[in-house]
Specification:
30% strand; seven-stranded mixed beta sheet; globular
Length: 219
């Protein structure tokens, strides 16, 4: 166990526990993607909260952007927590759903930071690894969506949108992420704004009807 999770578990009910894997599930009947298995290098271990509702009770009804994502985990090495893993499952992904997924990951990171900041030894921020998984993202590559990205003022100034869709991965600092995705989060601490962020986009897109998907992090 990482020192961070040990300290966290001293005073939070939703404790982090060691796990052999990071698996995220979606219970909604209408979901076309119900399970995501995330794999990572052997030198790391993963810790997950006992309750899936760990984020839902943070800022409930008191914050204008009370959003959270489907999965959260700590990725550690030795006794040190290194990364915060956040995953969001979607069905058919269009630009609107992509925007929402980014916002869910950002707000989930801030929620977990607010909890971790009370823990002894939390003197450096965890790097953020965000995963957006869907059953089908072909709509992102349609002519209509491509035109929207290049001509709509909401998207034309953002290189991150086009890079995420084209390369299926972006790396940047937290400040650029919230600026280019136009998230209203002025006033954040500089240490948060400088946090390294990686966002990955992964999809089945092959007619697979299993409603399950696997993704490997290369750290």
């Amino acid at each position: 166990m990482s020192q961070l999770s040990n300290n966290f578990n001293q005073f939070y009910k939703d404790k982090f526990v060691g796990s052999l894997n990071f698996t995220i599930t979606e219970s909604a009947e209408s979901a076309s993607l119900k399970k995501l298995d995330v794999f990572y290098p052997n030198r790391f271990y993963v810790e997950v909260p006992q309750s899936k509702s760990i984020l839902k009770r943070v800022w409930d009804k008191v914050h204008s952007q009370n959003k959270d994502c489907d999965g959260v985990a700590i990725l550690g090495e030795g006794d040190e927590a290194k990364y915060l893993l956040l995953a969001e499952l979607k069905s058919r992904l269009k630009l609107k759903e992509l925007e929402k997924a980014i916002s869910q990951i950002v707000m989930s990171y801030l929620k977990m930071h607010s909890l971790f900041s009370l823990c002894r030894g939390y003197n450096s921020l965890l790097m953020l690894e965000g995963i957006i998984a869907c059953s089908d993202d072909s709509a992102l590559y349609s002519t209509e969506q491509s035109t929207k990205i290049t001509k709509d003022p909401q998207f034309e100034e953002s290189q991150l949108y086009s890079r995420l869709i084209a390369k299926r991965q972006i790396k940047c600092e937290f400040s650029r992420l919230i600026t280019e995705f136009k998230l209203d989060l002025d006033g954040l601490n500089d240490s948060i704004l400088n946090t390294p962020v990686s966002i990955y986009l992964t999809s089945q897109n092959d007619g697979d009807e299993s409603k399950e998907h696997k993704f490997t992090l290369n750290l």
